Amino acid sequence: MARAYELRCRECGKRYDNAPLSICDECFSPLEVQCDLEAARKTFTREAIARGPGSMWRYQALLPVPDDYVAPTPTGWTPLLRAPRLAQRIGASNLYIKNDAVCLPTLSFKDRVVSVALANAQIFGFDTVGCSSTGNLANAVAAQAARLGLKSYILVPDDLEPAKILNTQVYGAKLVRIDGNYDHVNRLCSQIADRYNWGFVNVNLRPYYAEGSKTVGFEIAEQLGWRLPDNVVVPMAGGSLITKIRKAFKELIALGLVEEREVRFFGAQATGCSPIATAVKAGTNHIEPQRPSTIARSLAIGNPADGVYAARCIRDSGGWAEDVSDIEIVSAIQELAETEGVFTETAGGVTTAVTARLYAHGRIRPDELTVTCITGNGLKTTDALAGAYELEAPVRPRLSDFETYLEEQNEEHELVSGGVRVR
Amino acid sequence: MKNTSSCLEASVSVRVLLPNAFQKHTDGTREIRSNAGNLPELITEIETTFPALKAHLRDEQGQVRRFINFYVNEEDIRFLGNDKYAFKDGDEVLVIPSIAGGCFSCCSYCGKEDCVCC
């Protein structure tokens, strides 16, 4: 390979020089970035990585950017947390959370993919960038475009959560609400990218963008002490993340950074938008598009671009996919916050609820090392918890009033717990 | 008046928007008008109009490649009955290849589905 990375058609294998291009002009199949692992072998070592920055850019040698690229934002390198209390609640004993709810700069894993996409947007000379988004991507593109001095057009479904709209507009991005669902928005962006000379991160820059997801997999392996887990549970919208974590693990094995191990991949969707989980359960590679209807809007992609690949990745690994109801999603958001102090958005509720079900159904054994991927922050979807908590009347600032308040609380608790005093 | 239905059928005219990815095989044509009555007829007409496109549009089994999607007036044609959907006069048909970026192949090392690198 002449360069450290290039584009290659995933179906017919045709090679392309690096360009803002996502579709093969021979067979109209998707293009993918192909990194030269042999070239990376010299620089992609545990020691070199440890000397790198405390961000996803410590893995720069396996990302599609030039060697001398200097990233302006320390994205990624989010905590991998042991989750003993959640584990106890759901019948697990070796559970970890990969917490991208605190990913910089906009608190979702989309910051990773946008970092790589916009690096390439600059290389290709775009002065305007954009995306179709269910919200998190909108925030990430808006923020990072501002930091790079690029103009941005962000197209979103008109029913997007208010917090995600505000978190896009505040960066000065042009937010365009589209009268339709994400699939409508995405289709329109394909047409716009064909017509205008703009860099759409998830359209004409998508092969580069998608590579950013690999860093979730690299980090999980490094944070586990350079070993792979038994299982990974991943939320699925377009289906890209789960395939890229697998790609990351394969690359680490190929380069000898981790011992080979068959990792099983589990996909999580909301029942109201579950085309990939449905295909996995039916044992087919055929993805039947759905019309989304779920509070988990960041996963509401009815025609997932990587659905075929995600379903195959799950099945080939010996994993499974599950889908959960909106009520279960809300409960799981609360459960994760109450047990581990991690407040996630609805997508994280999906992942947590599915994780619990996988243990309950015996698809994951309690002692297996399992990582569940939390990809976004709960502050963005607080409307999902509307009405879940009562605001009590204020207490006067006197100790006696506070003691009365506590007594009332205890009485209420006794009523609820059937007279058994719980301290 | 006796041939009303066939007259109506003959009057169906749809606008078809082709993606940039096709242009190499369509001499740059981005848009055509068609009198096709349904999707199979439309695909045949596109292949007749642009013979260079035909070999690229179908796979080795002669099936239209699965990454090519068809939409009628913003709706995925699969929600409308797919091949059975009868085009209506004035319909706008979009042809859009899927944009996917995942990893079907095993690894970047060889790029093959049946990778033996690792």
Number of strands of chain A: 13
Most extensive interface, residues per chain?
A: A-B, 59 and 39 residues
- The CATH architecture term of the largest domain in chain A is 3-Layer(aba) Sandwich
Strand order of the largest sheet of chain A: 4-5-13-10-11-12
Q: What is the CATH topology of the largest domain in chain A?
A: Rossmann fold
Strand percentage of chain A, roughly?
Answer: 5-15%
Principal-axis shape of chain B: globular
Largest sheet of chain B: 5 strands, mixed
Strand content of chain B: 15-25%
Shape of chain A: globular
CATH topology of chain B: Ubiquitin-like (UB roll)
Count, helices of chain A: 15
Low-confidence stretches of chain B: 1-8, 101-118
What string gives the helices and strands of chain B in order?
HEEHHEEE
Rg of chain A: 22 Å
CATH class of chain B: Alpha Beta
- The SSE string of chain A, one letter per element, is EEEHHEHEHEHEHEHEHHEHEHHEHHEH
Structural class of chain A: alpha/beta
Features:
heterodimer; A: 423 residues; alpha/beta; Rossmann fold; 6-stranded mixed sheet; 4-stranded parallel sheet; 13 strands; 39% helix; B: 118 residues; alpha+beta; Ubiquitin-like (UB roll); 5-stranded mixed sheet; 3 helices; 22% helix; 18% strand; globular; disordered N terminus; disordered C terminus
Structural summary, described in words:
The complex is a heterodimer of chains A (423) and B (118). By secondary structure, chain A is α/β, with parallel strands linked by helices. Chain A has 3 domains: 80-107 and 213-385, Rossmann fold (3-Layer(aba) Sandwich), CATH 3.40.50.1100; 111-210, Rossmann fold; 392-423. Chain A contains 15 helices and 13 strands. In chain A, strand 1 and strand 2 (15-16) form a beta hairpin. Chain B is an alpha+beta fold and 118 residues long. Helices cover 22% and strands 18% of the residues of chain B. Chain B has 3 helices and 5 strands, in the order H-E-E-H-H-E-E-E. The model of chain B is unreliable at 1-8 and 101-118 (pLDDT under 50). Chains A and B meet through strand 3, helix 7, helix 8, helix 10 and helix 12 of A and strand 3 and strand 5 of B.
